[in-house]
Design goal:
Elements lengths: L1 E3 L5 E3 L3 E5 L4 H17 L3 E8 L4 H7 L3 H23 L7 E8 L2 H8 L6 E5 L4 H6 L3 H8 L4 E4 L3 H10 L23
Parallel strand pairs: 3-4, 3-6, 4-5, 6-7
Antiparallel strand pairs: 1-2
Helix pairs in contact: 1-3, 4-6
């Protein structure tokens, strides 16, 4: 995409890699992959985005506005973004241009709006566990259906998959299933 320069001549915009970060393990994996892609290409800027909404969504806030609550939620979102960057890199990674931003709105629509150029790359992590997916629409599904640019879906780390398997309430528990990772059979009680 050509961007007008101060002297009136068009200037080529560097490639952007837009990555959504919520603080989950999946989003941290996506952030690491976005930085790796930026290092690989050498000229891309990583645009880290944390989308946030007021409690009850925009409709609920319009019905009952509460500026102090909105300010507290925004501050919490800012802290979550800072913590995610700190957890992922212990600060800002070197050798990569990075821009972090809080955006008010739903994560899927925010990410697809920001990654608005076909030359951009949108990086998202896989959806959270089954309970979260049942309560909120999938950001990954929204982005893959609606983005105008390529979307890179990063699978969650092994630790996340282990944790989700461990918490699965529908998994039947047997007498021997004390430690599911090692599947130790317990001796019969006499």
């Amino acid at each position: 995409m050509d961007v007008p320069h101060a002297d009136g001549e068009p200037q080529q915009r560097s490639r952007r890699i837009v990555v959504g970060v919520s603080g989950s393990l999946g989003s941290l994996a996506a952030l690491h992959r976005a930085v790796s892609e930026a290092r690989r290409t050498g000229d891309a800027e990583v645009h880290v985005v944390h989308a946030w909404e007021p409690p009850g969504g925009e409709y609920g806030y319009r019905r009952s506005p509460c500026p102090p609550l909105l300010s507290a939620v925004r501050d919490t979102a800012r802290g979550r973004l800072e913590t995610a960057l700190e957890d992922a890199f212990a600060g800002v990674p070197t050798g990569v241009r990075m821009h972090a931003e809080l955006v008010r709105g739903g994560p899927g629509p925010v990410l697809t709006t920001l990654a608005d150029d076909p030359g951009d790359l949108l990086v998202v992590g896989t959806s959270a566990g089954w309970l979260h997916r049942g309560m909120r629409p999938s950001v990954t599904a929204h982005c893959t259906r609606r983005a105008v640019c390529p979307v890179l879906v990063v699978p969650g780390p092994e630790l996340q998959r282990l944790m989700e398997r461990r918490r699965a309430p529908w998994r039947p528990r047997a007498a021997w299933d004390v430690d599911a990772e090692r599947a130790i059979l317990l001796p019969e009680a006499s």
